[in-house]
Structure formats: C-alpha cells, structure tokens
Write a structure and sequence with these properties.
The complex is a heterodimer of chains A (about 110) and B (about 120). Chain A is an all-beta fold and about 110 residues long. Chain A is built from no helices and 12 strands. In chain A, the strands form 3 sheets. In chain A, strands 2, 5, 6, 10, 11 and 12 form a 6-stranded mixed beta sheet that branches. Chain A has a 4-stranded antiparallel beta sheet with strand order 3-9-8-7, with no helix packed on it. Chain B has about 120 residues and is mainly beta. The N and C termini of chain B lie far apart (about 30 Å). In chain B, about 0% of the residues lie in helices and about 50% in strands. In chain B, strands 2, 4, 5, 6, 9, 10 and 11 form a 7-stranded mixed beta sheet that branches. In chain B, strands 1-3-8-7 form a 4-stranded antiparallel beta sheet, with no helix packed on it. Classes of the chains: A mainly beta (about 110), B mainly beta (about 120). At the A-B interface, strand 5, strand 6, strand 10 and strand 11 of A face strand 4, strand 5, strand 9 and strand 10 of B.
C-alpha cells in the first residue's frame, strides 16, 4: 500500500544553518515521483522540488535539495542556509506513475530561529 | 500558486446549509483534482475530473458530496447539508493532461477554508 511517513512533527533550526526534514515512503511500484510542498501560515501549497524514481542524480532547486536513497525508500528534504521565511509546514508526497493521486505525509512544522 | 484560482478563500456555513467551492484551473488545463486537508493533517485526494467527466471519485464521501467540471466555467465541489466534520481546507489542483503520463507536479490553488458553525 502507498504510504508516506514524516516522523518529525516539529523541527527548530537556527537562521543560516542547514536542516534536513525526513520522509520515508512505501510503494510496490517501480516507477513513481516524490514531491515536497511548503505550506506557510497563510495556507497555500507551494511546490518545492521533485524527484523521479529513475533519476540518477539528487534533485536540487536553489536552496532545496532532495537526498534520495532509493534502497532505503527515503526522500529527505535538505534546506541550506535557512531563512526566517522558511518557517512553515512541509509536506512530502508521492505519486505512483500508474496513478494520478498524490499521497501526502502528515507534515513537519519547521521553525527558523533568528 | 501557478495560477489555479479558488474562491471563496474562506466560507462559513451553518450546519445543514450547502457549501459551493469553485476552482478555475490554469489556462489550458483540462484536468482538475480536489483534495481535502483536515486540521493538522496532510492533503487527501477526493476526486479527479476532466471536462464534463468524473474520472475517479474514490476519495469523496458517497453522501452529500458532489463535484462537476462543466464544459464552460469552473469546477464546483458541492457539499450539501454540511456538518461540523466538513470543516477543513479544500484544495484544487490542475494539469494540462493526466499526470499519470507526466512528471509534472500538481500546482495547487490557495484553497478554500470551510468553517461550519
């Protein structure tokens, strides 16, 4: 069964430091995509980064990178040089290529301290 | 939010009333997906529609909930006889084709926050 697990309900990080948000997933499909979304307190869902299951390289988008370890079924989000504006909920999601449904984890609330 | 427009942003209804949530997809997009987010939870898939067709409504409650995406106009998620448990944020996403054959992310609207008194 498809499942996304985010084990960190809340995280703190000091401004300008890096932080890793954990995500593990479960699927029996060989072909799938992994996504991270940011949800600030204003409530919108902002797409951050995507990783395909067949991608050899870890995805990067500016200060965001995805540490993809396929054998361990993990897709951790790394945010470098944290900024105060990074304080938000972060959701990991998966979509099997045989489906169109995004399956979301329960989220991690990140608070960046000045 | 990549141009998906949802309205209203906030909606308050009393128990027993009807709630209508609207979603205008990005220009050129003919596929719409609705998700629900209960407080402190991730989003959960409700329904997938193409123009004039419901493709998958497996995540939508069988009673009181309905969705449509007419040939002209926005997609509508309709909740009849609302109850307190319907209080949630409802998000819409769109894509130009079925994301089954694409690695493109679903871009979401800002959501409608439904509160039931």
């Amino acid at each position: 069964a498809q499942k996304i697990t985010q084990t960190q309900p809340g995280m703190f990080v000091q401004e300008k430091e890096a932080v890793t948000l954990d995500c593990t997933y479960d699927t029996s499909d060989q072909s799938y995509g992994l996504f991270w979304y940011k949800q600030p307190s204003s409530g919108e869902m902002i797409f951050l980064i995507y990783q395909g299951s067949y991608d050899e390289q870890n995805a990067t988008e500016g200060r965001y990178s995805l540490n993809f370890q396929k054998a361990r079924k993990s897709a951790n989000l790394v945010i470098s040089a944290s900024q105060l504006g990074d304080s938000a909920m972060y959701f990991c999601a998966m979509r099997e290529d045989s489906s169109y449904k995004l399956i979301f984890g329960s989220g991690t609330r990140l608070l960046v301290r000045p | 939010n990549a141009g998906v427009m949802q309205n209203p942003r906030h909606l308050v209804r009393r128990r027993g009333q009807e709630a209508r949530l609207r979603c205008s997809p990005m220009k050129g997009h003919s596929h719409v997906y609705w998700y629900r987010q209960l407080p402190e939870e991730g989003l959960k898939f409700m329904v997938y529609l193409q123009k004039e067709n419901i493709i998958d409504e497996s995540g939508m409650p069988k009673e009181r909930f309905s969705a449509e995406f007419p040939k002209e106009g926005p997609s509508i998620l309709r909740i009849q006889q609302v109850v307190r448990g319907d209080s949630a944020a409802y998000f819409c996403a769109s894509s130009p084709w079925s994301v089954r054959v694409s690695n493109q992310p679903q871009h979401f609207g800002d959501g409608t926050r439904l509160s039931i008194l």
